[in-house]
Design goal:
The chain has helices at 4-16, 28-39, 47-65, 69-78, 84-92. The chain has 93 residues and is an all-alpha fold. The chain has one domain (4-92). α1 (4-16) packs antiparallel against α2 and α3 (47-65) runs antiparallel to α4.
Length: 93
C-alpha cells in the first residue's frame, strides 16, 4: 500500500504536466520528479524519448478514466491531443 504523502507527491508531479506547454516543456524530465519517473520507468534524459513515454502513460490514464467530452478535455489539458488547432490554443493560454 502506498502512503498518502507519496500519492500526493505523484499527483503534484502529474499536475505540473498541465501547466503552460504540457508535455512539450523542454524541462519535462526534471519536472516529472524522481518518484513519477520511477513509477513510469522513465530512464532516458533525452527530451523526445521522455515526452513519448509520458504521452503513452497519460493517454493510457485518460482513456482509462475519462469518456466522451471529458476525454477530449483531459487530452487538451495535458496537451496530448492530435488536433493541432486545440494544441495551438492550449499553448497560447
Amino acid at each position: 500500500m502506498t502512503s498518502r504523502k507519496y500519492r500526493t507527491g505523484l499527483g503534484k508531479d502529474v499536475q505540473v504536466l498541465t501547466n503552460k506547454c504540457g508535455v512539450y516543456r523542454p524541462d519535462l524530465h526534471r519536472l516529472l520528479g524522481g518518484d513519477l519517473r520511477k513509477l513510469w520507468c522513465i530512464t532516458s534524459i533525452d527530451a523526445g524519448s521522455v515526452r513519448l513515454e509520458v504521452i503513452r502513460h497519460l493517454e493510457h490514464l485518460v482513456d482509462m478514466y475519462a469518456e466522451g467530452d471529458d476525454n477530449v478535455i483531459a487530452r487538451v489539458f495535458f496537451n496530448i491531443t492530435d488536433n493541432l488547432a486545440m494544441q495551438k490554443e492550449s499553448l497560447e493560454d
